[in-house]
Amino acid sequence: MAEALEGRRSTRRTATLASLAAELGVSRTTVSNAYNRPDQLSPALRRRVLDTARRLGYPGPDPVARSLRTRKAGAVGLLLTEALSYAFRDPVAIQFLEGLALACEDNGSGLLLVPVSPEAEDVGAVARAGVDGFVVYSMPDDDEHFAAVLERPVPVVVCDQPTDVPDVDRVGIDDQAAMVELAQHLAGLGHRRVGVLCMRLSLDRNDGFASVSRQDSARYEVQRRRLAGLRDGFTAAGVDWSTVPVVERFDHTEAAGAHAFDQLAERHPDVTAVVCTSDILALGALRGARAAGRDVPGDLTITGFDGVPAAERAGLTTVRQPSLDKGRAAGELLLDRGDRQRSRTLLLPTELMVRQTSGPPKS
Amino acid sequence: MAEALEGRRSTRRTATLASLAAELGVSRTTVSNAYNRPDQLSPALRRRVLDTARRLGYPGPDPVARSLRTRKAGAVGLLLTEALSYAFRDPVAIQFLEGLALACEDNGSGLLLVPVSPEAEDVGAVARAGVDGFVVYSMPDDDEHFAAVLERPVPVVVCDQPTDVPDVDRVGIDDQAAMVELAQHLAGLGHRRVGVLCMRLSLDRNDGFASVSRQDSARYEVQRRRLAGLRDGFTAAGVDWSTVPVVERFDHTEAAGAHAFDQLAERHPDVTAVVCTSDILALGALRGARAAGRDVPGDLTITGFDGVPAAERAGLTTVRQPSLDKGRAAGELLLDRGDRQRSRTLLLPTELMVRQTSGPPKS
DNA sequence: GTGAAAGCGCTAACAG
DNA sequence: CTGTTAGCGCTTTCAC
């Protein structure tokens, strides 16, 4: 980045507040006031200062120097699970971003997307971010970037995962309870032979079946809890969870969902319901199932999680979560003045959306 | 923002590089080197420095102070047409963002979304952004925020509009030529009675027909050029452009597109083709047309512009533009070292995608 | 209404 | 390999 930006425009690095003051024969204070406290000087003098500034090409107080002095950067840092660019492919993340952006806007704060290189050791980006606080979106347990955030002496708000971090506010949903509810819905319809499609459970790629022990030790708390909710709900309905096939996918795409469905269906052709831990996966599964000639919900039930717009269009039965509200709440939690006593946790409501991809089992 | 972030965590503002050095009995340089130039001191000493830092709760060099000293912020600022949050609703903007994020990632730069309040005078946010350069996405002519960006002594890259800004690089497409091609396609099919749906042409809301003079004086250059392209293309086919109805919409949503279609169809029921200057509008028009019982493309042709995923799914005939590439190119143009001589303009290719919403006129 | 003094916390020559 | 010297550009009491 060093010389990268040494361009045409940047060469006109010219006047400073001090040189302007000298030129005008006034003190630096006065010039500073002209910009920051217009009421502290006569309008005439202020006008003179600003005019001279323009003539000298003085661009106004340097933002970085001001930040150093005032001890505030005017920006919120955002740390994301994946590469920065991935966020713009995931509809849930996009909605979260929109909500967060809204909160920042209201506050006049900038939103700094912290570059987290692919698998980078480069924790440096976190240390180098000039921000007044961090919002951390859905990180795996024991993430080093997150650890780096915690090192910084600024407030932090986590969305979703990980939970139970001392001195850190959090906003999320009750993933486990939401899944219990979904399981009850399906069990109520009569489903007993179910299969599950879930997102990655650890940092190492495992595109295939996930054992119960792998499920329980998942490094992604959200997935762990969603699976736990399904286990609780189905177990209560008399299903032996250890017999329930869970297929994991590292990539979070519809294609992955479709392929995971094939894998599940091949080995367990008898399942009557496929529960997916995300809408994207479910949408893919739906496509895969229909491509395989299955009738949904006629002879197969498929459900998702998240409540993205595409799921609604597809009539997918799913659990809706307020992604945008999570973003806004995270921003507000970070930026809101006031009662910042002990760490707060905000759990937002979810809603089971029964639509057209779930029904009673065929037989 | 001031006290907003004075929280639990932030109170542990403690050691500085200087106090650490004092504690260790070494110079500040040494401590600085421990962080920035590990090769400049013995591993043993470095370890001692780092250990003591941890013990004292020293979080490492303050990013803002470092930025002041090194004269680089490590971040790129992004200025967007609308409120920050709008960007996350527009699929074209999202793709642009993704591309830009990719370029930033590669460079290890942060991406700072500059908060531009709704209709804010608050140009201050631009002045206050600690960034090494700005990417400006599709701004109207004579925008004051953009003007504020130009005041800053840093490099600037504009995407799309406005064009012809001195000393500023630009990336975009040839909107006019792309529309000429589309017009030729439609004229070739035999369409002579056409109608147009376009995005806002100025900052004041005008949800209705736009006169030729309003078209020509549009403050949004992209819309101006797309309309000009249509005019050129259809005029060449013998159409009197002054008779072509152009319906404008301030909001860029499918609902607006559908409603605009109704408005057009009511007053000009005889048009055989509706050309929209964006896919969103076209998707809305398509919905409106079908809701009105029209057969597309049977008795009505509808086209879009942009090439968003939803347009592909809908089989919409449109002009595809490489939104992601534009974002990446903008980032690279800003960050790439090297030949930064005079201002560069990068025009990316577009492609006419003839799909299932265009066909010969009915009669 | 205006100025003087005192750094914010850090890095970068350049000596040693 | 380590320390000295000089600020980066600005804001902010606190007197005048």
UniProtKB/TrEMBL annotation, chains A, B:
Query: Superkingdom of this entry's organism?
Result: Bacteria
Which SUPFAM superfamilies would you find in this protein's record?
lambda repressor-like DNA-binding domains, Periplasmic binding protein-like I
Q: What SMART domains does the annotation carry? A: HTH_LACI
Single GO molecular function? transcription cis-regulatory region binding
Domain HTH lacI-type as annotated: residue spans? 15-70
Keywords associated with the record: DNA-binding, Transcription, Transcription regulation
Which Pfam families does this UniProt record tie to the protein?
Answer: Peripla_BP_3
Q: Which InterPro entries match?
A: HTH_LacI (IPR000843), LacI/GalR-like_sensor (IPR046335), Lambda_DNA-bd_dom_sf (IPR010982), Peripla_BP_I (IPR028082)
Write the protein's name: DNA-binding LacI/PurR family transcriptional regulator
Origin organism is Actinomycetospora corticicola
The record lists the lineage as: Bacteria, Bacillati, Actinomycetota, Actinomycetes, Pseudonocardiales
